[in-house]
């Protein structure tokens, strides 16, 4: 696959430990997160940038030719220096750029990140041309936390050790970096420099700090037609050669998708693997790249597509088992901040856990597999979640007399619509939100397997949802008893009602009510990249997601499109229209083409976190989002049946 080399489409290569390499098709770094080696000191957290970038100059008989460039600010406008571009970019089978030199030399640079190791391999090959060739490769090192940018008053000194053909540098922080060069001949030349005020344009557009200093200890001089450098964290054993990394990566990628899988399905299955990472002895799911960690609700929404739909039931079971240990007071953490205690600020993470843990047990049973240890862990976790909500969790989540789950607390954002600007919660949704009731009912269904007495709670909740949420004009309320005002309803048109319309596979309201409600959602919320988070006619609607932190957070759930909601939307659409071959074909033609095309538009091979509410629905937020990929993959496979 080829792409215009001057664009800023982004690529990602993840290592399975929470680390990654990331950049743009043009080779220009536009984010603080664009780096060639980001490694997790405590996987998947405490990520550090070890190798910021490399500066490459090719030397032939015709002279010296720079291959890499970066932007700097100036009073006359941004300056690209040196003013060079690759002539081609490829993202399959892995990342590769090509440069054409004035003397007819054509050079390729390849990049491979192996799974399960904090390493990156770089290889330069001559594809055309003759004569002597030497590459001057200057690595820029850091050790900084990956959210930070650095300024240097003085040129940093990175202590160097050389042994067995490898060079290792001491860095600030818990991780050091080493490099293994391979060439016809090579030398390392000490030459410490600092490049001042490198510009990150994407950070500037987001209203954030966007200038940094980049430090390098020296230059590799590599002679030959085929040369390489492998970088990795310091540790036992020698770094592998690039050829070994590439061959292992080729085999791994071939295993991720069946040979007969349709192209878009195979593309999504390969993307899915980037989000499956280690946490201690178990596994978890990174919510998105570059800035997310593993989040509770995101993990279990994404797991349905990333693992269950792909048949990776062993990974699904491991994730479910890992998170079972973190149930506390009926709640599940919504995230694990680096170096801090888990945050229990989510009403729905535990409910998503119960629902998806039940689906995981069903998937294992369907292939004749039993895991008594997993079943015991799920039983204990689910019953603790139900009892916690029956008795009352922190932040005021408790079952009330109508069987519905009341949730919310002033100053906290507890549902998935969790934007907060300073002390202002943009969408507080205190009361009884519709998707929380649907998830509560489905969590109770799972609990009934282990203790039939929960059936009474489910029946009461089902009856109350069907009676209390339908609106006189059609559709379902987003919240009943909002702000704890009994008998009132928030009737703003949002997509959360999808979860009661079949978005969790079961319709929880009368069929006529569901059909009318879904028609309103489709007419007013659906866009080619998924549903809007608020109808355009509602107060507070924001047509664009952009600007600084305050502007972006204020628009986050006020119209902004969320591609992951494709999943519950299509499930509800099939529940209402019938899950037949004809309806699946109609849904496939109506709802998937733009999202499949999006795989080549922003984060290559992946799906973005967000998009603008209005055309052209520009992708926004994180360019690589687990639940967006997972739900598109799940729906793609479901509609292909």
Give the SSE map:
Elements lengths: L1 E2 L6 E5 L5 E5 L10 E8 L2 E16 L2 E4 L3 E3 L6 E3 L6 E3 L4 E6 L5 E7 L6 E10 L5 E12 L14 E4 L2 E4 L7 E6 L2 E15 L1 H5 L5 E13 L2 E8 L8 H15 L6 H10 L3 E4 L2 E4 L2 E2 L6 H13 L4 H12 L24 H18 L5 H20 L6 E2 L5 E2 L13 E2 L2 E2 L6 E2 H17 L3 H15 L10 E2 L8 E2 L20 H14 L1 E2 L2 E2 L17 H7 L10 H12 L3 H11 L1 H6 L11 E2 L7 E2 L3 E2 H14 L2
Antiparallel strand pairs: 1-9, 2-3, 3-4, 4-5, 5-6, 5-13, 7-8, 9-10, 10-11, 11-12, 12-19, 13-18, 14-15, 15-16, 16-19, 17-18, 20-21, 22-34, 23-24, 25-26, 27-28, 28-29, 30-31, 32-33
Question: Your description of this structure?
Answer:
This protein is 29% helix and 26% strand. The chain is α+β, with helices and mostly antiparallel strands. The protein folds into two domains: 2-237, Beta-galactosidase, Chain A, domain 5 (Distorted Sandwich), CATH 2.70.98; 256-639, Glycosyltransferase (Alpha/alpha barrel). The protein has a nine-stranded antiparallel β-sheet with strand order 1-9-10-11-12-19-16-15-14. Strands 2, 3, 4, 5, 6, 13, 17 and 18 form an eight-stranded antiparallel β-sheet that branches. A three-stranded antiparallel β-sheet has the order 27-28-29. Helix 4 packs antiparallel against helix 5 and helix 6 (349-366) crosses helix 8 (434-450). The longest helix is centred in the middle third of the chain and has 20 residues, at 372-391.
């Amino acid at each position: 696959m080829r792409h215009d080399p001057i664009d800023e489409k982004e690529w990602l290569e993840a290592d399975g430990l929470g680390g990654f390499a990331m950049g743009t098709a043009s080779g220009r770094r536009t984010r603080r997160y664009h780096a060639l080696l980001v490694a997790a000191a405590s996987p998947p957290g405490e990520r550090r940038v070890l190798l910021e970038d490399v500066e490459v100059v090719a030397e032939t008989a015709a002279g010296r030719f720079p291959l890499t460039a970066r932007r700097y600010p100036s009073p006359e406008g941004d300056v690209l220096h040196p003013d060079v571009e690759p002539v081609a970019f490829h993202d399959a089978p892995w990342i590769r750029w090509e440069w054409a030199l004035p003397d007819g030399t054509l050079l390729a640079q390849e990049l491979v990140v192996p799974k399960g190791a904090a390493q990156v391999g770089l290889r330069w090959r001559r594809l055309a041309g003759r004569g002597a060739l030497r590459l001057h490769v200057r690595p820029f090192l850091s050790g900084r936390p990956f959210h930070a940018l650095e300024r240097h008053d003085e040129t940093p000194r990175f202590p160097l050790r050389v042994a067995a053909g490898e060079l290792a540098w001491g860095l600030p922080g818990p991780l050091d970096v080493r490099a293994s060069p391979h060439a016809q001949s090579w030398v390392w030349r000490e030459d410490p420099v600092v490049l001042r005020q490198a510009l990150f344009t994407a950070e500037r557009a987001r209203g954030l700090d966007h200038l940094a200093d980049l430090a390098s200890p020296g230059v590799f001089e590599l002679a030959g037609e085929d040369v390489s450098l492998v970088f990795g964290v310091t540790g036992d054993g020698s770094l592998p050669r690039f050829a070994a990394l590439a061959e292992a990566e080729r085999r791994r990628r071939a295993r991720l998708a069946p040979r007969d899988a349709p192209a878009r399905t195979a593309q999504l299955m390969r993307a899915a693997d980037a989000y499956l990472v280690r946490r201690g002895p178990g596994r978890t799911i990174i919510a998105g790249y570059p800035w997310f960690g593993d989040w509770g609700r995101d993990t279990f929404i994404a797991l349905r597509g990333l693992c269950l739909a792909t048949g990776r039931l062993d990974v699904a079971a491991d994730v479910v088992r890992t998170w079972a240990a973190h149930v506390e007071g009926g709640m599940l953490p919504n995230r694990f901040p680096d170096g801090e205690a888990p945050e229990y600020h989510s009403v729905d993470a535990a409910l998503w856990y119960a629902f998806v843990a039940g689906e995981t047990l069903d998937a294992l049973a369907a292939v004749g597999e039993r895991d008594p240890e997993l079943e015991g862990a799920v039983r204990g976790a689910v019953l603790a979640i139900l009892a916690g909500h029956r008795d009352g969790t922190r932040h005021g989540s408790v079952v009330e007399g109508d069987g519905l789950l009341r949730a919310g607390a002033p100053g906290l954002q507890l549902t998935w619509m969790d934007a907060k600007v300073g002390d202002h919660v943009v969408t507080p949704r205190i009361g009884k939100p519709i998707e929380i009731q649907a998830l509560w009912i489905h969590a109770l269904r799972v609990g009934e397997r282990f203790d039939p007495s929960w059936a009474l709670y489910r029946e009461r909740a089902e009856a109350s949802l069907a009676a209390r949420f339908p609106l006189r004009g059609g559709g379902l309320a987003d919240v009943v008893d909002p702000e704890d005002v009994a008998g009132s309803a928030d009737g703003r048109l949002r997509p959360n009602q999808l979860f009661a319309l079949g978005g969790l596979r079961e319709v929880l309201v009368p069929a006529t009510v569901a059909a009318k409600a879904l028609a309103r959602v489709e007419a007013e919320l659906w866009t080619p990249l998924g549903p809007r988070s608020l109808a355009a006619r509602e107060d507070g609607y924001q047509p664009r997601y952009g600007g600084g932190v305050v502007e972006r957070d204020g628009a986050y759930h006020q119209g902004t499109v969320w591609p992951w909601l494709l999943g519950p939307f299509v499930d509800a659409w099939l529940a209402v229209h019938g899950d037949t071959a004809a309806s699946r074909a109609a849904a496939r033609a109506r709802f998937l083409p733009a999202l499949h095309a999006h795989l080549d538009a922003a984060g290559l091979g992946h799906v973005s976190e967000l998009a603008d509410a209005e055309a052209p629905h520009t992708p926004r937020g994180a360019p690589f989002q687990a639940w967006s990929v997972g739900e598109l993959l799940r729906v793609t496979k479901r509609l292909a049946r």
